[in-house]
Amino acid sequence: MTMPAPDFGPTTTDEPLLSLRGVTKSFGAVEVLREVNLDVRLGKVTALVGDNGAGKSTLIKGVAGIHTFDGGDYRYEGESVHITSPKQANALGIEVVYQDLALCDNLDIVENMFLGREITSAGLLDDATMEKRANETLAGLSVRTVKSVRQKVASLSGGQRQTVAIARSVLWNSKLVILDEPTAALGVAQTEQVLKLVRRLADNGLAVILISHNMNDVLQVADDIAVLYLGRMATQVDAKKVTHAQVVELITTGRLSTDPPPAAVAVAEEESTNSAVTNDQEDQS
Ligand SMILES: Nc1ncnc2c1ncn2[C@@H]1O[C@H](COP(=O)(O)OP(=O)(O)OP(=O)(O)O)[C@@H](O)[C@H]1O
Ligand SMILES: [Mg+2]
Predict the structure, then answer these.
(1) CATH T-level topology, domain 1-93+174-285
(2) What's the pTM value of the predicted model, to 2 decimals?
(3) Which numbered atom of ligand 1 lies nearest the CA of 50?
């Protein structure tokens, strides 16, 4: 008999900034998200992990308004919201840094950071203000590797580009920053830099969702780990309470063969009496 993986409980009891309950999404006949729950808190890095095709990108696209969920409850700052466009998500302070980054090589850092949302004064671009804000934002994130914000993005390293993309996402009174594989293309030192930046975002009070296939990154920087398995949330655990091997097992099987730690069992039992989630383990492929 297969049991749903236990819920180890969130790391804090604070009201989550974002709370998804039972969200679903299908593309035609393919059910990609099935009754997914997720809690994301201010000041925390929530890692979203799962195998290729598990539904991670679909889930964050739903949060960011690129897709609309078919069903379930999307709660933000304690209120039920219905997000149907990226603009609407941006207005709530939700920003996504996509893997391909979408930076323009031929523009400099300031131009990239304000692309599409330029600051104007009397109908003209207010370059001085934008440059000042770009510098302040980078300084606020303790970014010291960028020599000048007037450098063209083409001249930046992969890590510096990622840094610019992340800095751009925090320019807009963001509350939730979602990062899809920010270290995928980076070397060791640059990965380290970007992870420090991810940690700093959370330490500055933002909520961060980090999608990653790299368990070392996840265990280094995450407070919570949410594991998607075949479109279902296998579990959301306190990162301190799981081992590398356990996370890998959750990703590959959706459950744990070993006993979770005692603290986790209590939450899991309480949860299982509260929810009567259907548990069809049928494969989607
Ligand atoms: N627009 C779409 N139309 C049809 N099917 C889709 C669409 N987008 C995603 N899917 C399907 O949904 C499933 C989940 O895809 P998704 O991209 O969310 O996975 P993922 O967890 O982000 O994977 P990866 O780690 O490879 O990025 C896959 O089976 C995919 O083929
Ligand atoms: Mg993806």
Answers:
(1) Rossmann fold (3.40.50)
(2) 0.83
(3) 21
